[in-house]
Amino acid sequence: MTESTETPAAAAPEKTPTENGTTETPPEETPEKATEEKEKETPPPKEMRAVVLTGFGGLKTVKILKKPEPTLAEGEVLIRVKACGLNFQDLIVRQGAIDSPPKTPFILGFECAGEIEQVGEGVTNFKVGDQVVALPEYRAWAELAAVPAQYVYALPEGMSALDAVAITTNYVVAYLLLFEMANLTPGKSLLVHSAGGGVGQAVAQLSKTVENVTVFGVCSKSKHEALKANNNNIDHLLERGSDYTSEVRKVTPDGVDIVLDCLCGEECNRGYSLLKPMGRYILYGSSNIVTGETKSFFSAARAWWQVDKVSPIKLFDENKSLAGLNLRHLLFQHGRADTVRRAVERVFALWRDGKVKPIVDSTWALEDVGEAMQKMHDRKNIGKLVLDPSLEPKPKPATPAKGKAGKEKKPAKESSEEKKDKETKDEEKKMENGDKNESKEKEKEKESS
């Protein structure tokens, strides 16, 4: 006797009686139907407004779009964003002139502040409701931002989100430049470029926490009056584009102890030439490569070509130092988040003691980010430019109004040039018509003859 290997038949679906006494077999559930039902049960993902770079280039590539709200990964916190910081680095990213940019489209921004809404698994130093500022690598300019906790910093009591984005990046960069790299001590002198910008103002304020420090600031002539009226802590204002090295030597013939350069290009050579023995030149930006609205290979090549190549032997002979600071690399490539956190804590302590006060140039709605970028590109800001997701955008120019019954109003009067152009065209048409009439008359004459 052999054992059967056949599998038992599936039980037939139960038949349900109907009103007239007959039985009815229920329809079988197909995989397609099950999927459809699941999709109906699953609500659509929630969306948020975000500043998205759709392609590298000009201002038109920056769009305000609806994006899915971020989901938390392990070690992250979700921040309801109240303010975003605009930095020159964002302009360089937009043009695609930064190293290793992500593929477009992506959410812009390296700085935001707000309130924690969710805490991811493994996060123990933050809780829901904490007021924080964050320095993520991109994705900061949105209504919500998911950020690894190591790049998030608790705000001291009384600090608003607006002040937080005005102080964190700018003053941390300034602090690292002055106290970690330049070793600023009493009696020294320094020169800082873009003195009217966010970092320039931070350098001026922090340098005055040390006794008897002389500050030379280089910026556009148009900013000088506003800076003087604002008690800007800069001892000597110098005009950008002028022979400022001669002006510095009139005050201090030996030069300065520290040069802080965010421009690059030919300013590197001028800055190095101003250094005293034991002086230090530090590059912390390269804004000279941003000359137009879009990326220019010529500008980048020129900035590189204009820099003299200084050998270590020359530094040895002249007792001078060259250094550089890139905050983004320090955080995300070199793994020095602890160094940055210590700098943030010291800057916040100085703010709490009233020794530094951030300067906000202006606040913009997310939809007006293009105008804010243009203002920074034109070097017209004094202090920080801030984006506020809660602000309403500026009203757009009105479209041509319509008259009664939906009829469009009469067009505006033509200009004199338009009238002349129209008259000339009318004359040409008349001449053409005249020529045609003459030729027709001649043909009639020939036929009659």
UniProtKB/TrEMBL annotation:
Keywords: Oxidoreductase. Residues 1-25 have a biased composition (Low complexity). Transmembrane segments: none annotated. It comes from the Eukaryota. Residues 30-49, 405-449 have a biased composition (Basic and acidic residues). Residues 1-49, 385-449 are annotated as: Disordered. The keyword Ribonucleoprotein does not apply. InterPro entries: ADH-like_N (IPR013154), ER (IPR020843), GroES-like_sf (IPR011032), NAD(P)-bd_dom_sf (IPR036291), Quin_OxRdtase/zeta-crystal_CS (IPR002364), SV-ATPase_mito-regulator (IPR052100). GO terms for molecular function: oxidoreductase activity; zinc ion binding. Residues 57-387 form the Enoyl reductase (ER) domain. Pfam families: ADH_N, ADH_zinc_N_2. Belongs to the zinc-containing alcohol dehydrogenase family. Quinone oxidoreductase subfamily. This is Synaptic vesicle membrane protein VAT-1 homolog-like isoform X2. It comes from Bicyclus anynana.
